[in-house]
Structure to design on (263 residues):
C-alpha cells in the first residue's frame, strides 16, 4: 500500500506544513497541491463544496506527493467512511467533545477487528494500491478537533484513545468556546494558554498536534512551539490576500477592510 508520508512524519516526531482547500475547483486543487505541501485538506465542513466535488478533487490532489486529507462535516461514521472510500488518507473530525466521541471517530476509520469501517474502498484501493485491505488500518490517519469547552475539559481522555493519530485545533471555534471573538491567529493570553494546554496533553500521550493558521508569522510560531502539522493557509485566503495586496499597491492605498470568514 502507498505509505502515508504525513502520518509517518508525525509518528516520528516530525513537522509538516499543509494547505486547506475550501473551493470546489479541480484546477486550483491540482495547482496548489503541486507546490510542495506535505498534506492537503479538503474541507467538507465549511468549504463551498460537497461529496461530488470531493470525488473530483481527491484525484487532483493525488497527482502530487501531498497526503490527501478531508475534514468531514461531522462525527458521523458514514461521512468518515465515504471520505475514506473516495481516497482520503486521513480525516479531520470537528468538535470532538469526549472519549466516547473520539472512539467513534477512530472506529469509523478502522476495519475489523480494530473498528467498524465497512469494506468498500471504491477509489481508495486504486489510489492506495495493492495491500490496501490489509494495511489501511495502519496508514489511515484519524484526527480529532478539540475546539469546544467540553473538549478542552476532556483533552486528557480524548488524546488517550487508542488509534487516535492526531489532534487539530480550530482556533476560531476555540476562541468562541473561551468567550472570545472568533479570531484565528490569536494573541489573547487565555487563548494562547489553552492552545499550549492542548499541545502539552498531546505530546505527553505521543499524539501529533496541529493547528489552523492564516499567516506566515503564526505558521512559524507554531512550528517553533513544536506543533507537528500546521496549515499555512487556504486557497481562498491566498487568493484574497494576493489580490487585495496587489490592488492596494497599485492604487497606493490601504487594503479595503474585510470581514473574517475563517479562511
Amino acid at each position: 500500500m502507498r505509505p502515508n508520508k504525513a502520518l509517518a512524519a508525525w509518528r516520528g516526531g516530525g513537522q509538516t506544513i499543509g494547505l486547506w482547500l475550501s473551493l470546489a475547483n479541480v484546477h486550483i486543487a491540482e495547482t496548489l497541491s503541486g507546490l510542495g505541501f506535505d498534506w492537503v485538506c479538503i474541507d467538507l465542513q465549511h468549504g463551498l463544496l460537497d461529496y461530488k466535488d470531493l470525488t473530483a478533487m481527491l484525484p487532483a490532489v493525488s497527482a502530487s506527493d501531498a497526503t490527501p486529507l478531508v475534514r468531514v462535516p461531522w462525527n458521523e461514521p458514514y461521512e468518515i467512511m465515504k471520505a475514506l472510500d473516495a481516497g482520503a488518507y486521513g480525516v479531520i473530525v470537528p468538535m470532538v467533545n469526549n472519549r466516547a466521541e473520539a472512539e467513534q471517530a477512530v472506529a469509523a476509520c478502522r476495519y475489523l477487528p480494530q473498528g467498524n469501517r465497512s469494506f468498500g474502498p471504491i477509489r481508495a484501493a486504486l489510489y492506495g494500491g495493492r495491500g490496501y485491505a490489509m494495511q489501511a488500518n495502519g496508514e489511515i490517519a484519524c484526527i480529532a478537533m478539540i475546539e469546544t469547552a467540553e473538549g478542552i475539559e476532556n483533552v486528557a481522555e480524548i488524546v488517550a484513545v487508542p488509534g487516535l493519530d492526531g489532534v487539530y485545533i480550530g482556533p476560531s471555534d476555540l476562541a468562541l468556546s473561551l468567550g472570545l471573538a472568533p479570531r484565528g491567529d490569536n494573541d489573547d493570553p487565555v487563548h494562547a494558554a489553552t492552545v499550549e494546554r492542548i499541545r502539552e496533553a498531546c505530546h505527553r500521550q505521543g499524539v501529533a498536534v496541529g493547528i489552523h493558521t492564516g499567516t506566515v508569522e503564526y505558521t512559524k510560531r507554531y512550528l517553533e512551539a513544536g506543533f507537528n502539522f500546521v496549515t499555512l493557509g487556504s486557497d481562498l485566503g491566498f487568493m484574497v490576500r494576493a489580490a487585495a495586496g496587489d490592488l492596494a499597491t497599485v492604487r497606493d492605498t490601504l487594503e479595503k477592510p474585510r470581514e473574517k470568514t475563517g479562511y
